[in-house]
């Protein structure tokens, strides 16, 4: 059996009830002492096939007056390793009552059991160990032995020996040959004992966190060291659950779902804790002045931004019902929170009780998010509300998106104030959580583009060249276009490399590119772009078939929307005389015909109907020209 590495103690927790060792910080073991080092060395090197035997409570089997002694056994026999005799009976016996092997001579007969060695070293509470020495406490033998095994797991967790617990799962619990007819041993060999320990340990940690979170801002700073240790504990529990989840493959879905829910709760609690620690270091920004006078003024400002975004949203020139991803008139922050809202809705459908619901210092904002959705919660009422709502909602996999939203919140809270007052705060957050400069500037630009003032727009122009590239958010170009800056939008598209039709994009992005090119009077480029893109979609459909993802399902749908978009935009910009000269194919020209004729029907005084007539005359198609002429006369 491999020896588990000792990296030094993390911190023995004050674990509370349920049979876990309770130890106040004033009574921590001396990790420099020989007894502690030897106990940890013994635990790290113990054969895991014997660990569950070490966890079982043993009583003396020596015979006294025709009956067993029955005293609690603290020692194992050096000759055979059995914990079968108490210290007194060992002096009176010559053979082990279990295997009948002769005992060693002299004083070298006994050594402490691992459990009692940990008690003597102070790694496990002595008060907790005393309960097994009383005969009246032996009724619940199964629970007692499980608690002893849990104590070994506690010591492992608190001293960076979590690999011992992971190997216990893989090498013992998942070993098909490790079976026993004894009920106690069978339970100790079951991986459920590890899962239940993780669940209890997590509950105890969250109870401790709740007490710290409820302290005043000035008092929480003293608990930073303890919070760092709890964060390490949560990371270790998460790694144990990963091992358990891999071992549960092929099991009933209910078991996997329970593990997944527990893992999600642990990860979200850890992510929440890390942000809380950052907030504590900066005293929850109480010393940093916000640019908003109060929450009400900030809330009204966000409503103004929303109204401005809705008012400038691009016109509904074609029916885009097939493209459900478009959210015209929405802010960047609304779209980002909407992604978290989807995960929150899934959690509500499951109707599960949250492990971390009581971590909330102020539950009113969290309740508001449950009722109104996350999109309706911005701006957050306070920094604490922002941390609670973002990092205790949605999937733990979205932690990067949550951090980006939090950075957006910090920029929105401070950016128009002098930079020396707040910039170091944002930079420290980025450094603490590994956020690179590109992501930091991207969140800042989203904040600036959501702001409806010209000052914010001009500042975004200075930063756009630095972040523009293949990963540029496609909505940036659309917002710039809606704010009457097509040239800047065109440059962003050029920098992103998605404006030449060489790669497939979403239909919404394709419409944006067409619109930008039309606004920049680049009609030939717009025509070539839609032709190349529709050709790629057509080739993909022939190879893989139409997609079933809720988007347009065939290349004809793409052709109809892109060509109709281009034509309708040219009608609005009085550029029809230029597009009728382009080399449209038969699939495309029917949508040109429909758009121009519909426009002439809606406004008979316009010249669009006559230009449609010219369209056919230029191509020497006199029959179609005559039919158009008849329809125009009827109008």
Automatic annotation (TrEMBL):
One of its GO terms (cellular component) is nucleus. GO terms for molecular function: ubiquitin-protein transferase activity. Residues 12-28 have a biased composition (Polar residues). It is found in: Nucleus. Its main location: nucleus. Residues 1-28 are annotated as: Disordered. One of its GO terms (biological process) is protein ubiquitination. Residues 331-599 form the ELYS-like domain. This is ELYS-like domain-containing protein. The keyword Nucleus applies. Keywords: Nucleus.
């Amino acid at each position: 059996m491999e020896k588990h590495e000792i990296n030094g103690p993390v911190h023995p927790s004050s674990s509370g009830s349920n049979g876990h060792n309770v130890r106040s910080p004033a009574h921590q073991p001396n990790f420099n002492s020989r007894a502690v080092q030897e106990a940890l060395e013994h635990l790290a090197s113990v054969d895991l096939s014997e660990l569950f035997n070490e966890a079982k409570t043993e009583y003396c089997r020596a015979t006294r007056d025709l009956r067993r002694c029955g005293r609690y056994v603290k020692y194992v026999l050096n000759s055979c390793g059995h914990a079968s005799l108490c210290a007194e009976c060992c002096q009176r016996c010559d053979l082990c009552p279990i295997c009948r092997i002769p005992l060693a001579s002299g004083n070298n007969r006994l050594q402490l059991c691992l459990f009692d060695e940990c008690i003597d070293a102070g790694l496990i509470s002595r008060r907790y160990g005393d309960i097994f020495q009383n005969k009246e406490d032996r009724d619940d033998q199964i629970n007692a032995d499980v608690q002893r095994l849990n104590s070994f797991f506690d010591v492992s967790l608190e001293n960076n020996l979590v690999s011992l617990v992971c190997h216990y799962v893989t090498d013992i619990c998942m070993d098909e040959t490790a079976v026993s007819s004894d009920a106690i041993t069978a339970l100790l060999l079951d991986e459920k004992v590890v899962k239940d320990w993780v669940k209890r340990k997590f509950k105890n940690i969250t109870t401790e966190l709740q007490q710290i979170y409820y302290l005043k801002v000035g008092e929480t700073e003293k608990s930073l060291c303890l919070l760092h240790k709890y964060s390490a504990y949560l990371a270790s529990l998460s790694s144990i659950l990963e091992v358990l989840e891999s071992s549960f493959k092929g099991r009933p879905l209910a078991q996997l779902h329970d593990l997944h829910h527990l893992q999600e709760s642990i990860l979200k609690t850890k992510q929440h804790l890390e942000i809380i620690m950052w907030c504590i270091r900066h005293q929850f920004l109480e010393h940093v002045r916000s640019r908003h006078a109060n929450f009400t003024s900030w809330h009204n400002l966000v409503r103004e931004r929303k109204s401005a975004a809705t008012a400038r949203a691009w016109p509904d020139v074609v029916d885009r019902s097939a493209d459900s991803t478009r959210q015209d008139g929405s802010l960047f922050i609304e779209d980002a929170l909407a992604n978290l809202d989807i995960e929150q809705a899934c959690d509500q459908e499951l109707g599960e009780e949250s492990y971390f619901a009581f971590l909330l210092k102020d539950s009113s904002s969290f309740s508001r998010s449950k009722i109104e959705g996350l999109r309706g919660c911005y701006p957050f009422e306070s920094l604490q509300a922002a941390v609670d709502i973002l990092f205790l909602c949605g999937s733990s996999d979205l932690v990067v998106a949550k951090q980006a939203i939090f950075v957006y919140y910090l920029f929105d809270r401070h950016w128009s104030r002098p930079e020396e007052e707040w910039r170091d705060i944002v930079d420290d957050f980025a450094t603490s959580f590994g956020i690179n400069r590109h992501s930091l500037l991207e969140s800042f630009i989203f904040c600036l583009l959501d702001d409806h003032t010209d000052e914010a727009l001009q500042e975004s122009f200075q930063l756009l060249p630095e972040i523009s590239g293949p990963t540029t958010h496609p909505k940036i170009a659309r917002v710039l276009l809606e704010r009457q800056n097509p040239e800047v939008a065109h440059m962003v598209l050029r920098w992103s490399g998605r404006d030449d039709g060489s790669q497939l994009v979403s239909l919404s992005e394709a419409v944006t590119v067409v619109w930008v090119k039309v606004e920049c009077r680049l009609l030939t480029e717009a025509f070539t772009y839609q032709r190349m893109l529709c050709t790629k979609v057509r080739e993909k459909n022939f190879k893989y078939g139409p997609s079933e993802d809720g988007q347009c399902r065939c290349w004809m749908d793409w052709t109809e929307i892109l060509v109709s978009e281009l034509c309708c935009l040219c009608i609005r910009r009085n550029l029809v005389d230029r597009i009728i000269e382009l080399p449209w194919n038969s699939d495309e020209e029917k949508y040109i015909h429909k758009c121009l004729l519909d426009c002439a029907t809606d406004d008979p005084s316009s010249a669009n109907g006559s230009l449609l007539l010219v369209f056919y005359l230029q191509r020497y198609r006199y029959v179609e020209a005559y039919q158009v002429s008849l329809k125009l006369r009827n109008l």
